[in-house]
Amino acid sequence: MNHSEAADKFNKDFDRTTWHDETLWWVRQKRDRAAFAIPEWEDLRNTASQIKHNVLSNLDTYLIEFEKNAKANGVTVHWAADAHEHNQIVLSILKEQGIQQIVKSKSMLTEECHLNPFLAENGVEVIDTDLGERIVQLADEPPSHIVMPCIHWKKEEIGVLFHKHLGTPEGCADPSTLTLAAREHLREKFLTRRVALTGVNFAVAETGEFVVCTNEGNADMGTHLADVHIACMGIEKIVPKRKHLGVFLRLLARSATGQPITTYSSHFAKPREGQQMHIVLVDNGRSRQLGREEFRNSLKCIRCGACMNTCPVYRRSGGHSYHNAVAGPIGSILAPNLDMTKNADLPFASTLCGSCSNVCPVKINIHEQLYSWRQVLTKSGHSPTAKTIGMKAMAAVLSSPSVYRFSGKIGRLTLSNTPFVVNNSLNPWYKQREMPEPPKESFGEWYKKNRK
Amino acid sequence: MKVGLFIPCYVDQFYPKVGIATLQLLEKFGCEVGYPANQTCCGQPMANSGYEHLTHDCNRLFVQNFADFDYIVGPSGSCVLHIKEHLHTEGEGEAKATHIRQRVYELTEFLTDVLKVENLSAHFPYRVGLHQSCHGQRGLHLSQMSELVAPAFSKPEKLLRMVDGIELVQLTRRDECCGFGGTFCVAEEAVSARMGVDRIDDHIKNGTQVLTGGDMSCLMHLEGIIRRRELPIKVMHIAEILTAN
């Protein structure tokens, strides 16, 4: 199902669409309040954008510096060219340990690489420990939002899900009770799993350390109790120096949820005694994107989700309509790099309103890249033939003043005299909207009579 | 000052009264206005659909029509933005295209920034809700954007405040997109219509009698929904209000 079809389905439930829109808009407003409390907000965004610019221009150097320092800290560093290699590396570490059960905190990279199904096929059970991720995992769904994975679920529905899987009382939708049940359920997993996998929010080249941000402390619970910590990161997560974290940590949570900072911003530098620590550095198309000048800046993304919360289309179509690990505006400029054919619809799932670029904490020109992807996709043959024929016809009419004037007149006459030709179910405009009332004369015709 | 009147294709065909009001405004403030009869379209419908490579002839035509004016003014932020960002031609024409890109203005910014209009002598005793069209606002910066931590301003609002008897409605979401989006309105019909419904709902809840804006395309979409649902709101382009008496 492409975005438009999925969105059409989503919109069949009018009230639920209202609820989804208002829930996300509420998060956007929280972001606004947090941002407006910082007078230097726009300077912070500029600074973050420029630091990332430097990172992308010197990514090779910073990655090697990071690897050297991480190794010196006693961390094992792996390099993965693509999703497949990433998944194999994780599996090989688990096999070496003879492990078949792990806990995992939030990592959009592992979603991108489809690690969970891969491990399941190989007999490894993965328990997602972020509450929202655990909910969608129990429901056998992918996350619909990168920061709030189950934002499309109502608490009553979570109550039903938990009753089935965790044995909470039937009909219970009290968030405290449900959360407590999840805590107890997860506690047993934390205590018994020997391998914990986490994502990485920032990796510091200067020190070889990395930072994992969560609100639930689940990454910490997992890693502190495990013998082996595997951290998976996209190669663009690098920042040059530790001091730069101050800029990004101030922006991340404010942009994401309107909090001043994530509840836990944990720095991992070296394995504790007896523990193993692995970092998997993953490319999976990132160096290809780095080579595309007009799309390079998309790699600045720090995965805050602000562009989704502000996107009027995302709010009214839901994360799953984007059929990609990262949904919304940022997902729509990242996904075509992963697979142009499969994701050719996504850059068109936007009105190009530009709100996404304005909330982006690292100032990615998202809406301009959406426009550019449309051109790239069309030129590389990823556009439906009927659309190409229509566009060529339109261009032909608009290229000739006399044909344009003639067609305009015919169009207006048709609307006046035989409106059923236009006003029917084959015209998507007419489904929920009236056509404009055709005037007797065009402006051009009026001008000819009245001014010259 | 020679001003080229740029009337977007759909305004020409469906909303001649908007073109007339724009012309009257420019003439009222002493501009020597010319309307090149051979103009058609800025090319945006193709470009936004991923077919910018099919807009060469539209670009060539636009340059032919407008190269000789001091300023080019149109009553549509979206079309003006497209010209400003994407008008290019091959060879010698490029210098002319550059001149146009630098001299093309949306109507309200031309009135406030170039003509420095302070008085309008217009009268319009209604509660008016202003729809901030995205390309005008976020593209041409006609108004401050709600996402940015920056001082507030609004060029269209400044002009509307000069109109006698007008009462401006405060919206709950002051600059959310209406969902028109060019071919988006048919390609993503469900979301587009829903966005329009929500925008109109905001106006109704806050007491708008007349919904206005600087982009007739957004207004055409909103008006289509209003008429289908038989809602008690009238839709007018800002030029019609600024010339009302």
Automatic annotation (TrEMBL), chain A:
Biological process terms in GO annotation: lactate metabolic process
Protein source organism: Runella defluvii
InterPro entries per the UniProt record, alphabetical: 4Fe4S_Fe-S-bd (IPR017896), 4Fe4S_Fe_S_CS (IPR017900), FTHF_cligase-like_sf (IPR024185), Helical_ferredxn (IPR009051), LUD_dom (IPR003741), LutB/LldF (IPR004452), LutB_C (IPR024569), NagB/RpiA_transferase-like (IPR037171)
Pfam families for the chain: Fer4_8, LUD_dom, LutB_C
Record keywords, A-Z: 4Fe-4S, Electron transport, Iron, Iron-sulfur, Metal-binding, Repeat, Transport
Protein known as: L-lactate dehydrogenase complex protein LldF
A single MF term (Gene Ontology): 4 iron, 4 sulfur cluster binding
Occurrences of domain 4Fe-4S ferredoxin-type (ranges): 291-321
Chain intervals for the UniProt region annotation (Disordered): 433-452
UniProtKB/TrEMBL annotation, chain B:
InterPro entries: Cys_rich_dom
Cysteine-rich domain sequence ranges: 3-84, 128-222
Pfam annotation, one family: CCG
GO molecular function: oxidoreductase activity
CC annotations in GO: cytosol
The name this protein goes by in its record: L-lactate dehydrogenase complex protein LldE
Organism per entry: Runella defluvii
Lineage: Bacteria, Pseudomonadati, Bacteroidota, Cytophagia, Cytophagales
